[in-house]
Structures are given as C-alpha cells and as structure tokens.
Amino acid sequence: MLRTRRLDTVNVDPATRTARVGAGVRSGRLQAAAAAHGLTGLPGSSPVVSVAGVALGGGLSWFGRKHGWISDGVTAFEIVDAEGNQRHVTAGTDPDMFWALRGAGGNFAIVTALEVALHPAPHLYGGRTLWTAGHAPAVADAFRRITATAPDELTAWLDLLHFPGAPPMVAVDATYLGAEDEARDLLAPLDLLPAPLSDSRKTMSVAELGSITAEPTDPGAGLSRAELLTTLDDDATEALLRNPIAPLLSVQLRHLGGAFTRPSDSPHGPLTEPYALYLFGLPTDPAAAAAVTARQRDLAAALPASGRKPYTFLNPDEDASDAFTPEATARLRTLKRQLDPHNLFRANFPVA
C-alpha cells in the first residue's frame, strides 16, 4: 500500500489558469486555493477524495457537463515508472502513458503530482432541495423537465434517500455556473412543487461544493453499484420509483450529457449515456449485505443500463473491462505488458 498524504503541495498560477497538485492533495483543498482567484477545478461530490485519485479514474465532476471528464483537465503527470525513473508525462512526451493515466487508475505508474487546468468561476449557485418521499413522482417529473433542456452550465442530480431512523425522502441537488437569477429560471419547475422540507440553494463559493450532498468524510463500510442509463423515459422513471429503495440508503441519478459526449483522449472516451445511476447501502451484517446486493441487482435490471460503468464507480465484484470498450481494454492490456511487464503496479481494478 502506497500512501501519498505527505505529497501535499498546491501551487495555483492564475495567469495560466493551471495548478500543480501533489498526489495527496484532497479536492476541497484545491477548490479553496482556486476559489481565491475566481477559478475552479473539476470537483466531484466529496471534498475529501484526492485530486489524483479521482483524475486517474476519469472522474465525474459537478462541472463535467461544461468541461468533460476530470481527467480531461489534466495537462501533465509527474510519475515514477516501473523502472524507477522519475518522468514528466504529457500528451507530447509520451502519448500512450498519458492516455492510460487519464482514466485507467493506478495500473501504470506511481503519480507523485499532476498539473490541471482551472476554469473561470466568477459566479456559482447551488444546493439541495429536499421533500418527503411521497412527492417523488412530482420531483422526478420536474427533474426530467429540467434536464431535458439544461444548458451545459447546469448540473442536476436526483436523490432517493432513506437514512436510518428517518422517513424516506427525495432531493434534487444542483449547481449552476452563472448568476442566481439565471439558475432560478432554469430550476423553476422545483418551485412549483409542494413546499420542501429544506432548501439550501444559494450563491456560493466553489470551495463550498462539498456542503451540497454533505457526504460523510470519515471512512466506513459500504456496498455500491453503478450503471450508465441510456434513457430516463416514463418506463424507466416508473421502475425507479415503483418500490421503496430500502434496504439501500441512497439511489442517485446524475445528469450527464454536454461535454461528456464530446471526444476525449482517455480510456473512457465520450459518454453517450445521459444519466449515471449510483446505488449505495450499508453491509451492517451478512444478511444486510445480501439484501443490499439483491436490491441493487433488481433495480439495475429493471432500468435501461448500457452495461458499462465509470471506473471510479466500480465495486469489488467488477473489473476494468466493465468500464471501457473492448477496444480500449485491449489497448490498455497491451500498454500494461509494455510499460509494466512484471506487474509492479497493482491497482484496485487491474487492466490485465
């Protein structure tokens, strides 16, 4: 096990809109450094994941509809290769290694730092709106209407939630790279719904993004499964809402599209599926674990899944070939044999 916590430097260059980030730097720290200059990286939902870790897996960001995969924003990697050489890798110096590192995890090298592009973020509006689960059909309908015409600057996620000791709930999480009045117009279908239990939407700094979903920041056991959905039509929506999500804690549907559909020099390539589904539950004991897995399997089978998943959303029962096309998987395996013939680097999800 290689820990990178002490590789913790962050250097932001506002003139070039880039940052050099050590492999141990967490996403929230980069966001705070970028926010001081009116800039943003491409953060996921949690501020505690490392920038390098999520970028090496491709990475789905709040701002991916505008700017693509998190890995698309990486301009260089500083690595130690399988022969022990320190190298600065770019698309120009080593296009094969650069391509593989932008999505296939820790299979090819030790990444000690990376350079990432930053993006202007002079205005940001976002937050969570929460209702009781009885309003789920109406909330899902509003979510579908919002995502059907959303500009790339707007991202919306639908959440079905059932936490221990609390009643089932439904939420819409949203961010908009722009002014509050524009965001409120785009999210107007939510304001036509019954009064929510809470509404945290506001103008915010990019450093506050982690507060939207307020995911736990301490390690803990969990069972997850992800799918990419080809549509969210009436049948898919009905299947999603037909039964309570228990024993799952959450079912999250992320709107994709936008820049995700454009060409990407990465193992994932473009994402043509318009939604990502993430199913999560707690394995408190063997019986609970079996029930969570069964509910995930049944719900996934009832929905129009494409069959592949984002690399960062894979679970221990899956491998890298579940994330990539056969052509990309074959190329990754060839590069593994060339770049690390003795399998020195063993990622959680091996390509070989």
Q: How large is the radius of gyration?
A: 20 Å
Gross morphology is globular
> Which runs of at least 5 residues are low in confidence (pLDDT < 50)?
none
The ordered string of helix (H) and strand (E) elements is EEHEHHEEHEEEHEEHHEEEHEEHH
- Structural class, from secondary structure content? alpha+beta
Number of strands: 15
Helical stretch count?
A: 10
Largest beta sheet, briefly?
A: 8 strands, antiparallel
Distance between the termini: 19 Å
Report the average pLDDT across residues. Answer: 96
**Helix percentage:** 25-40%
User: Approximately what portion of the residues adopt beta-strand conformation?
Assistant: 15-25%
Structure overview:
With 352 residues, this protein is α+β, with helices and mostly antiparallel strands. It has ten helices and 15 strands. Strands 8, 9, 10, 11, 12, 13, 14 and 15 form an eight-stranded antiparallel β-sheet that branches. Strands 1-2-6-4-5 form a five-stranded antiparallel β-sheet. The protein has a two-stranded antiparallel sheet with strand order 3-7. β9 and β10 form a beta hairpin. The longest helix is centred in the last third of the chain and has 17 residues, at 286-302. The chain is globular. The two termini are 19 Å apart. The mean pLDDT is 96.
Note the topology.
Layout: E1 10-13, E2 18-22, H1 27-35, E3 39-40, H2 51-56, H3 64-67, E4 74-80, E5 86-89, H4 95-101, E6 110-117, E7 119-120, E8 125-132, H5 136-148, E9 154-161, E10 169-176, H6 180-186, H7 188-191, E11 198-199, E12 202-203, E13 223-229, H8 234-241, E14 250-255, E15 275-281, H9 286-302, H10 326-339
Antiparallel strand pairs: 1-2, 2-6, 3-7, 4-5, 4-6, 8-10, 8-11, 8-12, 9-10, 9-14, 13-15, 14-15
